[in-house]
Amino acid sequence: MHITVKGQVTIPASIRHSMGFLPHTEVQFVQDGDRVYLEKVKGNLKRSKGIIEHLRGTASVKMTTDEIMALTRGEDK
Question: pTM here?
Answer without folding.
Answer: 0.49
